[in-house]
Each structure stands twice: as structure tokens, then as C-alpha cells.
Write a structure and sequence with these properties.
The complex is a heterodimer.
Chain A (H helix, E strand, L loop, with lengths): L2 H17 L4 H19 L7 H27 L6 H29 L5 H23 L8 H10 L3 H10 L11 H8 L4
Helix pairs in contact in A: 1-2, 1-3, 2-3, 4-5, 4-7, 5-6, 6-7
Chain B lengths: L4 H12 L5 E2 H8 L3 H13 L3 E5 L13 E5 L1 H32 L2
Antiparallel strand pairs in B: 1-3, 2-3
Classes of the chains: A mainly alpha, B mainly alpha.
């Protein structure tokens, strides 16, 4: 078997795995659609370097998992959490926070007198985490319990507790349209300028 | 939701030739988007009636290549995309003027 054939088989396997997440009614069609893109990627004349084509095909297939999860969320509709689910998430969030604190203390007590890098690492990780939370907050359409600015302040002031609590109970992962429909209202109200 | 950079690039790619039917990898390259971003976005646009899709008919000269799914803006999709891109361009221009004016006011 050629290298291209092996790559194609791995990619097909990854796509099939991703498609398992999908609801029954769209699974087969999506699987066929994504696998049908592979020949175009593997024989793309624009990518002259053959390993680049292989890398693209594998990345395409691996990223299909993200597509599948997103399509599954959209098919399910907005996720409405029960009170029990919220409490479980809160407990999970607090446990993650406590483990992070324990890990931080362990890192600092083990290395600090001799080495400064754990502190630098923690600082970078903290800054990255706050950025991640604020990005997620900016992109989400809806949040629970607090207004958006409240969550933003909590995430930025209390690192990492604020961010963890936001991600576990504050975030609402609802599928939303690319546009809220402003354009169509504008469209309906009169001819385009 | 706002017109994000990814959505803006996808709209520009689709609007480059509204009559052309494009397959996923073609759009990924044109809009510089990974598959995990592109397909959910296309699905949402399709739910909103802005994009339509159809399967390529099976051809004898395809050399065993499986038929692909093609996407295209609908009539309404073309109108909405043009309007949104124009609004986005206007917002960018006005924000540039907005920051430029106080600075130019201070210079003698």
C-alpha cells in the first residue's frame, strides 16, 4: 500500500470515529461528505510538498471531531441543566480548583527556593487561562446567574477560581445562528441603500 | 452573534463568485478555516436558509472519486452576506475615524 493510501485509511478511520457522535439522521450523510473531501486534499496540486497534503488530510479528519460535536450540540438544541446537574458541575469545578491549588503549592514548595521557573510557568498558565475564559465569555450569547461583566470581573480577579466556576456553571453552550437576524430585519424594512 | 472574522472570510469566499458551487475543502482553503469551524458554520447558515447544498451527481469520468457535496449562497444569502459585509466595513471605518478625530484635534 502506498503512503497516500495509508494516510487515507487513517483519515477515514478518524472521520468514522468522529461521525459516531452524530445523531442518526445526519450521520451517514456527514460521513460520506467528509470522506469524499479526502481525494481532493490528497491530490491537491496547490500543495506541491506531498507530506503537507498528508498533514492536511489528517488534520482535516481529526478536526471532523470538532465539527461533529458542534453539529450534535446544534441538533440537540439549547442545553437546559437540571438543578442536580448544576450542583454536580459546581462540585466538579470546586474539585478542579482545589487540585489546581494543591498542585500549585506542591510546585512552589518543591522548587521555589532553588528555581524561579515554576512561578513563571504558573503566571503564564494563569494569564492564558484568563484569556481563554474572557474569549469564551465574549463569544457566548448567554450566561447564567451573573451578567456578562460580572463574570468577566470574577474571572479576571479570582484566578483560577472565577474562570473555573464560570466554565462549569456560568457558561451556556447554546447553538446560535451566525446572525441574530438584524440583517433580515433591515432587509424587510426597506430596499438596500 | 456578531459577524466574526471566520464568518466574514467565509462570506467573502462564497461571495467571490455567488453562482459557483463550492465543496468543503475548496471553501476551507479560500476562507482559511479548519474543517471543525467551517462545517458547523455552513450547517447554521443552511438552517437559516442562507446557504443551500446539493450532492454532485455520480459521473463516469470521476475515476472512482466519490461524489462531493457542494455549497452555494441562496438568493437571500447573497443579500444578507452583502449587507453584513457592508455593515462590518462601515463599522471598521467609523471606529478608525472615531479614534483618529481626538488625536487630530489635539495637534496644532
Amino acid at each position: 500500500m502506498t503512503a497516500g493510501g495509508i494516510v487515507q485509511r487513517i483519515a477515514v478511520y478518524l472521520i468514522r470515529r468522529a461521525c459516531r457522535h452524530l445523531p442518526d439522521d445526519i450521520r451517514d450523510e456527514r460521513c460520506r461528505e467528509w470522506t469524499s473531501e479526502l481525494p481532493a486534499i490528497l491530490h491537491d496540486p496547490a500543495a506541491r510538498f506531498v507530506p503537507l497534503r498528508f498533514a492536511r488530510a489528517l488534520f482535516f479528519a481529526a478536526d471532523a471531531g470538532r465539527s461533529a460535536r458542534s453539529l450534535r450540540r446544534a441538533a440537540r438544541g439549547p442545553v437546559i441543566l437540571t438543578r442536580a446537574a448544576l450542583i454536580l458541575r459546581l462540585i466538579a469545578g470546586v474539585s478542579i480548583y482545589l487540585s489546581v491549588v494543591a498542585l500549585t503549592i506542591a510546585l512552589i514548595t518543591l522548587f521555589h527556593p532553588h528555581n524561579a521557573w515554576p512561578l513563571a510557568l504558573l503566571f503564564v498558565a494563569g494569564a492564558g487561562f484568563v484569556t481563554l475564559c474572557l474569549t469564551s465569555l465574549a463569544r457566548t450569547a448567554q450566561v447564567r446567574f451573573l451578567p456578562k461583566w460580572g463574570w468577566a470581573v470574577f474571572c479576571a480577579v479570582s484566578v483560577p477560581l472565577g474562570g473555573i466556576i464560570y466554565l462549569s456553571i456560568g457558561r451556556v453552550r447554546a447553538p446560535s445562528g451566525p446572525w441574530s437576524g438584524q440583517a433580515r430585519h433591515a432587509d424587510a424594512s426597506g430596499p438596500l441603500p | 452573534m456578531k459577524l466574526t472574522g471566520a464568518l466574514e472570510r467565509l462570506m467573502q469566499a462564497l461571495l467571490a463568485d455567488p453562482s459557483a458551487r463550492r465543496y468543503g475543502y475548496d471553501l476551507m482553503k479560500a476562507a482559511r478555516l479548519p474543517s471543525g469551524t467551517l462545517y458547523p458554520m455552513l450547517a447554521r447558515l443552511q438552517d437559516q436558509g442562507l446557504v443551500s447544498s446539493e450532492w454532485e451527481p455520480v459521473r463516469d469520468d470521476a475515476n472512482g472519486r466519490p461524489p462531493r457535496k457542494y455549497y452555494q449562497l441562496t438568493g437571500e444569502g447573497i443579500r444578507v452576506a452583502r449587507l453584513e459585509l457592508a455593515q462590518a466595513a462601515r463599522a471598521t471605518t467609523s471606529s478608525i475615524h472615531g479614534t483618529a478625530q481626538p488625536a487630530s484635534g489635539r495637534t496644532p
